[in-house]
Amino acid sequence: MLEGLLAALREVIAKIYRIRHWAVKQQLGDDVHIDDDHLYHGAALIQIAESLRFTAINSLKIAKRVLGMGYLINDDVAVYLKYASEPNEAHEEYVFTFAEGHLSDLEKTAHKYEKTFIALVCVQEREICCISYAQLMELKAAREKSSGQKEGVLAVLVTAPKKKQLRVGVNAAHQKNNYAKVMKVARNAFPEVIFE
Question: What global pTM score does this model have?
């Protein structure tokens, strides 16, 4: 019975997601099709929906603007999704770039929702590295301390060593092969970490 309910729930979420994105694109006058982010965001959203603590999903709105990469879970948890298709060849790192606008949106989101998380989808590895907004700010602070100045863009790196925890970090400024900060994240932390 539970499997049937979960299957129905997944189907409903998928339909809501498709309709939401179709409506946004229709309003913008864009052609409507499935983008890569639809697929990879869906991978994370299905895992969230399969949690027994999941009750609802909505678009994440900040100042009457829908954040295309953000979702509101259970009315009190904001999840911001980003994906990287494959790791870079040199260091086997998935690179997630947060432009100034992304960081600003996240700051506003965290101000509105105490529980704000960033889910980093590592496509080729089929892993989701989830960190809190506070952890993202720790990474940003470490990078800026390393560079000695504020930076508008943040590159977050995720590695997935075999049979070990995920590593998420930021490079030290002007130093090859050196991190300013690295955190370990359990591979099985997502999605339950967002409900704690």
Answer: 0.81
Side-chain-side CA neighbours of residue 190 (13 Å): 25
CA distance 195 to 47: 12
Query: Can you tell me the distance from the alpha carbon of 104 to that of 98, in angstroms, rounded to the nearest whole number?
Result: 10
Would you state the structure tokens that stand for residue 113, as one six-digit string? 């929702």
Q: State the alpha helices, DSSP H only, in 29-98.
A: 36-49
Decide if 109 contacts 88 (C-beta within 8 A): no
Which neighbouring-strand residues pair with 70?
80
Q: Is the pLDDT of residue 178 over 70?
A: yes
Buried b (16+ CB within 10 A) or exposed e, 36-75: eeeebbbebbbbbbeeeebeebebbebeeeebbbbbbbbe
